Amino acid sequence: MTQRIAILSRNSSLHSVKRFMEEASSKKVACDVISPLDCQLVIDGEKSHILHGSQILEPYDVVLPRIGTSITAYGLAVVKHFESLSRHVVNHSQAIAQSRDKLRCLQVLTDAGVKVPRTVLVRNSRNLNAALQAVGQPPVILKILQGTQGVGVMLAHTPVAIGSVIDTLRGLGQDVLVQQFLVKGAGKDYRAFVVGDEVVAAMERVAPEGEFRSNIHRGGEGRALSLPQEFQKAAVRAAQILGLQIAGVDLMWGDQGEPVVIEVNSSPGFQGIEKATGANIAGFVLDHLIKQAKKPKPR
């Protein structure tokens, strides 16, 4: 029987979505792109269903959420609804929520013993000296909780500058993470693309001159590399701890020469890593979805 796969994305022209559809076509798998914003969630006290337009959606074998940060709240509600109606959802709403909140992500990883940068959540600059004693002296990284693709990430070199940024962001309603600046890995990091229980591709991302952020969207250059085994194990473990079957895990060298998990992305783009490595990321993901679709619905 042909498996039915749904991709939850509000933009069918995205590189990732187009690649998924190409792979689905080549594998002769029925695959629909559904905008979560076009879904109306119905609960009548006995059962749930989803209206897409005026039609009730039939259950899918597997659903792949690609929820943008701008619609996180509504998107997660849609994903949660699909979890009760579909056989499998990759990734689950709880896993997406945990990874999307930078502090919560670090809390969960730290509780499981995964090495992450020293980090302090601050609400104002009044006790800044105590925060700096916890993370280390400047320079430090400042991050807002919901930023993505390097947006909302800053490098500050003096206590005065740090305090000014914190108070400015707080005035805009943002809480701030003050984070250790990893000198050993400054200006570059590793992106590991995890599917299931393995790293299917990895690249080194190098920041452009004068920039500390290595994100491809910020002008960083992606280079293929053979990721050390210790980094692969850290990436897979981080994804599994958060409950993610598909994840982009960003790592850096710690000051003691150990892998440190910086962030985990539950809906990672892969145009840059496919270009850098030549790996068929979309194919790996589709193969995983097809494998999941053949399994019975978990209890």
Structure report:
The model has no long low-confidence stretch (mean pLDDT 89). The chain has a five-stranded antiparallel β-sheet with strand order 14-13-12-15-16, sandwiched between helices. Strands 2-1-6-7 form a four-stranded parallel β-sheet, sandwiched between helices. Strands 8-11-9-10 form a four-stranded antiparallel β-sheet, covered by helices on one side. With 299 residues, the chain is α+β, with helices and mostly antiparallel strands. The protein folds into three domains: 4-89 and 287-293, Rossmann fold (3-Layer(aba) Sandwich); 100-105 and 184-268, ATP-grasp fold, B domain (D-amino Acid Aminotransferase, Chain A, domain 1, 2-Layer Sandwich); 119-180, ATP-grasp fold, A domain (Dna Ligase, domain 1). It has helices at residues 15-26, 72-85, 93-100, 102-111, 128-135, 159-171, 229-241, 271-277, 281-293, and strands at 4-8, 30-34, 39-43, 48-52, 55-56, 62-65, 88-89, 119-122, 140-144, 153-156, 176-180, 188-195, 198-206, 221-224, 246-253, 259-265.
